[in-house]
């Protein structure tokens, strides 16, 4: 038998190369993890994929994840890898697990449990903590096996506590010595391969015990000093969640001052309010001014409503903080439903106010923006489908609508709590932001919010909602693929991935666009210590390829583990 010319040949697909240019039909040949030929390939492949009637794209870049723990205890970085993602960026929002002294493990677990909804027992059981410094953590990640590539930001919360001890956790002002230490540690992290530095200023980011996280409202001078460490190393991107609740004119100054001090690019979270004035357009104007002045900044935008999924089996639901719920909270779901059929308990739960709790819980009581989520999931429901809209039509209270839904579904019914990005109950604002030259899709939060958010499927949603469906919000396929690949890659400093070209990395997807479907999120129990998480599957990814190896075929893992740690441009090998 003749020896094959290539490791893999993808035949006859419609190629969207990630640049946003015209679609072309042709073959792609892969050898030694690189693209060897594009066009009409006459040679044979050791493996061949028939892509006729399918689209062939670069692997997608997920710029905003929290796989910092999952990449240690698991080999599959799902849901992201289930949705065409071949590179995931973790360490966002300034939370993570390094640098960290042994005495501070519990504090970081407390922060991650509160901010990212990862159960403490999962982190206790799933992490061996055999690192202290951030370079040591990166080495730990590099030594592991996984399906897709990962890259990591240096997170601000552990950095601050490592440099300042209890003063850092208590949010005391950093001294000159503290700042000098954090600047040096940041430069060291960039040279070890961090792709940047990340922080959060968001007021609703709380620890598990309800306290402000170490980085909340940090003096901008501290951020200037830390990011000067990126300038020292000549590499790195600044990622931040700004506190839009205090006003964009005030908070955007963080971007301007950090770029001026560090000379490094910046990326931040942007969303529209649901019914507030469209302040996001002012942010786009500020972005344009920054880039016109020679700075580099971009915003990360979720292609669908930002919010939570609520349900009895999840972290949040519409009655979770009602005092009477405590009487049945320990029961199984069938037992809870049986108890909810009792008229006295029903009357109590329908009339009680919420007790104090984490701000996220309140979203499950925002009746105007709480919608049913069924199969297939509708992330753009009409206002009439909200609990308030249905209550008005029925002449009852929103509490009754939500309660009856839980009973009718035997406690399994899910709700979509839309916090933002759903202005006037449409996706118009998301569409406009996505098309802006300085905005990229993101905010999927894969690896976190295990019991409340499952947005890592946004790549599939963008293709199904904005490409498949005709209408004023439709995107061209080439434009959508560009957003998910090259545009996202460049926003976080990747220059070696995101497009399909001869000699480039062989990270690809073969997708049945006509058959692409998003399934209802489901609860799986595959975390350490039997912890539960939300997962969301897709149908239509016929092949996902990382470094030339097929990691998924027909929406199922092949068991291949070619994923590696992507070290940033500042990396200096020891």
Question: How would you describe the overall organization of this protein?
Answer:
Pfam families: Amidohydro_3 (PF07969). The protein has 574 residues and is an alpha/beta fold. It has three domains: 6-53, Roll (Urease, subunit C, domain 1); 60-304 and 423-486 and 505-557, TIM Barrel, CATH 3.20.20.140; 308-420, no CATH class. The chain contains 18 helices and 24 strands. Strands 1, 2, 3, 4, 5, 17, 22, 23 and 24 form a nine-stranded mixed β-sheet that branches. An eight-stranded parallel β-sheet has the order 6-7-8-9-10-11-12-16. A hairpin with an 8-residue loop joins β19 (522-524) and β20 (533-535). α7 (176-192) runs parallel beside α8 (220-233), α14 (387-394) packs across α15 (398-408) and α17 runs antiparallel to α18. The longest helix is centred in the first third of the chain and has 17 residues, at 176-192.
The global form is globular
Q: What's the CATH H-level superfamily name of the largest domain?
A: Metal-dependent hydrolases
Helix content: 25-40%
CATH class of the largest domain: Alpha Beta
Beta-strand share of residues: 15-25%
As for the CATH topology of the largest domain, it is TIM Barrel
Radius of gyration equals 24 Å
How many DSSP H or I helices?
A: 18
The structure class reads: alpha/beta
Q: Domains counted in the coordinates: how many?
A: 3
Separation of termini?
45 Å
Identify low-pLDDT runs: none
Q: Mean of residue pLDDT?
A: 95
Largest sheet: 9 strands, mixed
Q: How many strand units?
A: 24
CATH architecture of the largest domain: Alpha-Beta Barrel
